[in-house]
Every structure is written in C-alpha cells, then in structure tokens.
Specification:
The chain is of the alpha/beta class and 429 residues long. It has 17 helices and 18 strands. The longest helix is centred in the middle third of the chain and has 18 residues, at 252-269.
C-alpha cells in the first residue's frame, strides 16, 4: 500500500510516516516548508518527499506509483482552505483521512495493544518515561512520542512487540479515535478553546476517552473534577503519596509523572514498583523539556499555565532565586485565553524577557498581544523585573551576560521554524 503524508515534516505526521515505513508500507509526502524532521525522514529511508503544497508534485508521485491513502494532520484544512492536494485526491478517488485512522489500521493489522498517555500537560515526558522503562526491561516495544529521545528514535515499529505506547493528543479530539488497552492521564486543565469552547466540553472529552479505555489510571484531583469514582478498571492515585519522594528526578512534576507511569507499567508487566523507580531515577530526560542548550541556558516547551508553573518549579529547585525567563507565547489566541493567569505567573523570577508570540492557527478577530501589551497583563511585582524584547543581537548579549554570572536562563518556547527554541540553538549551541 502506498501512503502519502501531507505535512510530513510535522512532529506527529513524521513519526507516523516512520512507523508506516517500518511496518512495510510505501511512504511519500510533502510539507509546506523545509524542517529538521524532513532531514530525519531521509536518514530513515523516506526520501520521496518534497517541499511545497501543489497539484504538480503529488500528480508526479501518483504517476510513478498510485497513491492508495492520503493522510493529513489537523492543521492542514486550516492552513490551506483551498488545499490543492485535497482537490487532487478527490478527483482521483484516493482515500483520505486524518492520521489517527491510519494508526488504528496499523494497530489492528499488527495486533498491537495500545498504551495511551493523555492529559493537558506532561504527556510527552510521561510517554518518554514509559518507553525508557520498556527499553531498560528489554521488552520489545512499538511507540510514537512527540519529542526527540536521547535513548531512541522519535517513533518505532518493532515486529516483535505486543504493545504500542502512544502520546494521545486531545487537540482536534484526536484521542477519541482510539480504544486503548491501558490509559494513563497525566493531568487535566482546560485547554484548546478553539476545539473545546467550554471547560465542560473539555472534561466531557476526557470522560469519553476513559470510557473507551479498558483500564485507566489518573490522579485524585482529576477524578474529582471529572466526577469519576474508582472502579474495577480505573485506579485513582494521590499526589500526596509519600513514596513519590523516593523518585530522585528534578522537579515535582517529573516525579509525579514518573510515579504515574511506574504504576501503569507495573500493572502491564507485573514488575515491582521499587524496581521501576530505580530505573526511572536514571531517566535521561528528553529534548525541549528543561533541555540545556549551553551552560546555564535551557529550553522548555511549557506553554500553558500549569506547564509553566511546573517548569518554573523545576528551575527554582535547581537554581533557587537565580532564574531568568524568556517567554514566547504559543499562539496569540492562547494568550488571550490565559491572560488572567499570566498576571502572577512570573512574580518570583529574577528577570523576565517577553518576546513576540509564535503565531499559528490564529483567531484573526483578536487583538495581537505584542510583548509590550503582554507586560501590561502582569502584576506590579512582575512588571518591576520584566521587559519587552526581540530575538536579536541585543538579547543575545543580555542572555550571555546572565549565563556568565551563573543565572539559570529558562526559555519557554513554542518550537518549530523561526521560534525562540530554534533561535537559541542557532546562537548558543
């Protein structure tokens, strides 16, 4: 079967393309812009890709070998209202679907049991922890995770595996396409108002996801807000469990994530919790999660208030009061959604630089919140140590000066082309 991936340079789509290739499918694809993920795909044998979104290229690919299935990501219909590839596929009778339908087909064909990690925050790190445990236990595993791993690939299909570990994203209701064998919920806090206009709609989606799971594990506070009691196929954990402190990872959020996944993997493998904790204490972390770019300069994908609080807690745990933050909001639309929570979020940091937000999938009717306007949203205390900034030479000098004085610089960045994260890697690594 020949599968064409539109937006193949995206994190989730590129991971699925690798899995499809390893599972025996013919793979090709396109993306609107060049990226590091296209280079990654080429290294993994997926070379029939091109940059551009048009009829000509897909027609050439289809002529060489007919496309059986056209897979696209959630952003494609929004980014390209008159998508030329969509039109070509419809005219030529090519099957079209979002990525989740293809993944379900692979799970079915390969008889894999889905272990899904879901939640508003922490799911990428927790998914990586699950992969780490399976690898340390020397158990065959197939998986997909939304970040680069120092101890494995972005995605993998292993023909000897029984389980597929998956970061199940709630955006665009993606996770409701699956019926997991096991589910773990990292934490729930209303997000993606463009998809879920009310908190109730967001919570209802998680209830539905849990109903679709054969067995699930979640925290007590999340179970309370969902109105779900413990059940024979649902276990509820307490964040105040003393044994969580036996985990030696930096950051309370990381320790809670490790405890959650230790319980999940123990239930699957029957391995003792103590053995799994010892292995998790050696977890090396993953890219874009308090990742050190250069001495004293770190990047983190935290972009919602709970994630930001977790990243700040980790930074303060590591550096006490010498924490400097560079904040790049992920989407102007989200900044409007969370602006009331931003007021006191940075009260404790030593200094804050606010750079322009990373724009994508925006509500054009909303005012653009520039760095100067974002400053006005902060408390008087935070404004006293904050300034608007740009990604330029002046900021490079200031951040180098902080690092030379031993301050911990934490960049809260969206990632992707032209982001703060990419700028840091170009100028500091």
């Amino acid at each position: 079967m020949h599968i064409f991936f539109s937006g193949i340079g995206g994190t989730g789509i590129s991971a699925l393309a690798v899995i499809a290739k390893q599972a025996g499918f013919e793979v090709s694809g396109s993306d609107a812009r060049p990226s590091q993920y296209l280079k990654y795909l080429h290294k993994h044998g997926i070379t029939d890709t091109y940059v551009g979104v048009d009829r000509e290229h897909i027609a050439i690919v289809h002529a060489k070998k007919p496309i059986d299935w056209f897979v696209y990501g959630s952003a494609q219909p929004r980014d390209f209202p008159d998508h030329p590839e969509f039109a070509f596929c419809k005219e030529n009778g090519i099957k079209m679907s979002l990525r989740d339908e293809l993944l379900n087909e692979i799970l079915l064909q390969k008889k894999l049991k889905l272990v899904a990690i879901a939640g508003t925050h922490g799911k990428t790190t927790t998914t990586a922890m699950a992969i780490w445990l399976f690898k340390q236990l020397d158990l065959p595993l197939s998986y997909s995770v939304g970040a680069k791993l120092s101890f494995g690939e972005l995605a993998l299909y292993d023909s000897k595996s029984q389980y597929f570990v998956y970061e199940a994203d709630e955006y665009d209701r993606n996770f409701l396409s699956f019926y997991p064998y096991r589910s773990a919920i990292t934490g729930i806090d209303w997000d993606h108002p463009d998809i879920y206009p009310t908190r109730e709609a967001y919570l209802d989606a998680f209830k539905e996801f849990l109903d679709q799971s054969q067995w699930a594990l979640l925290w007590h506070d999340d179970a309370d807000q969902l109105g779900l009691p413990a059940a024979h196929n649902r276990r509820i954990l307490d964040r105040q469990e003393p044994d969580i402190d036996k985990i030696k990872l930096q950051g309370r959020v990381n320790r809670e994530n490790a405890w959650l996944i230790a319980q999940t993997v123990s239930q699957i493998t029957k391995k003792p919790i103590g053995e799994l904790i010892e292995l998790l204490n050696q977890f090396p972390g993953l890219s874009r999660r308090f990742e050190e770019i250069s001495p004293c300069i770190y990047t983190d994908y935290a972009h919602t208030p709970p994630k930001i609080r977790g990243a700040l807690q980790l930074a303060h745990e590591a550096a006490a009061d010498k924490v400097v933050v560079v904040y790049e909001g992920l989407h102007n639309t989200r900044q409007h959604f969370i602006k009331d929570e931003l007021k006191h979020l940075f009260d404790r940091v030593m200094h804050l630089y606010i750079v322009p937000s990373y724009l994508a999938r925006e509500d054009e009717s909303l005012e653009l919140l520039t760095p100067s306007k974002m400053l006005d949203l902060l408390s008087n205390k935070a404004r006293g140590h904050s300034e608007a900034a740009e990604l330029n030479d002046e900021l490079i000098v200031k951040l180098k000066n902080h690092a030379q004085h031993g301050d911990t610089v934490l960049a809260l960045s969206a990632g992707g082309a032209d982001s703060l994260d990419e700028w840091l890697r170009q100028n500091f690594r």
